[in-house]
Amino acid sequence: MSALGHYLEEEGIATVAIASIRPQAEKTRPPRALWVPFELGRPLAPPGDAVFQKRVLVTALKLLERSDGPVLLDDFTDDDPRERPDPAWQAPTSGLASPQPGNPSGDMLANALQAELLALAPFYARSCVARGRSTVGLSGLAPAACGDYVVAWLRGAPPAVSPVADMSPVLCLRFAIDDLKAFVLEAAQWTGRPSAQQLGDWLWNETATGAAIRALRSRLIASNDDRAKLIAGMFLVPGLRV
Predict the structure, then answer these.
(1) Burial class of residue 213 in the structure, from the number of CB atoms within 10 Å of its CB (0-12 exposed, 13-18 middle, 19+ buried)
(2) Low-confidence residues of the chain, pLDDT below 50?
């Protein structure tokens, strides 16, 4: 989008971008950009908060009034109002089996992941009822099938065939992992209103799911499969959590 902005400006059309990753905007140098401190995928911050979202949009559009460009990068200083930590929130996985510290084997990670997903299933079901929706479904597999597929990767050689027609095994793995992340995060939100930071810290530092995804990322990056390396490096673990 940053490159496209330059082409549009050359045709006399003023542009402004909303940037979620400041270093990326600094490197690509769009004609005008507003950096926002929100989670990826939330360029306007809280869904359903029209007043706050309008403030973000108006701040971005005001950059069109500036003439000191062509490259501008301003900051939106207010954080997402939902990002205040909830002191009452407790993760729903207390007491579950977790992989051993250090460098656990694939079988150990697989066992811990299976136990965790089984324990989280009731919380996920309640969350779906309470929220009236779920973001799980990118892979086309049910959560349990996503877990089984990721476990198969953890236990040994990559499966030769994807469970989803017309999808390669490694691409199916990427989407199954996305669905598992959504599954555990939605389950965790049944127990309160945690901030994104709380959820991220819990997922990547305390869960078997996070440990399993990290292990698969490392394995794929060390493989000889260029496509697997690309997917592992870009999509499995957020850059700030690597």
Answers:
(1) buried
(2) none
For residues 8 and 25, the answer to whether their CB atoms sit within 8 Å is no
Q: Which amino acid, one-letter code, is at 2?
A: S
Q: What is the pLDDT of residues 79-134, one digit of tens each?
A: 777 677 788 888 886 555 555 566 778 899 999 999 999 999 999 999 999 889 99
Distance CA 79, CA 52 (A): 10
**By three-state DSSP, how is residue 20 classified?**
coil
The two three-digit tokens of residue 48, written as one number = 């359903």
* Predicted model pTM: 0.75
Number of H helices, E strands in the chain: 9, 3
- Residue 146 corresponds to which tokens in the numbers above? 């996503």
Angle at 155 between CA 101 and CA 201, to 5 degrees: 40
> Encoding tokens for residue 16?
């402004």
Evaluate the omega torsion of the peptide bond into residue 70 and state whether it is cis, within 30 degrees of 0.
yes
Residue 38 DSSP one-character state: S
Extract the tokens encoding 238: 């957020």
The total of other beta-carbon atoms located within 10 Å of residue 192's CB is: 14
Q: Which residue has the tokens 């950009």?
A: 33
Is-contact 42 80, C-beta < 8 A? yes
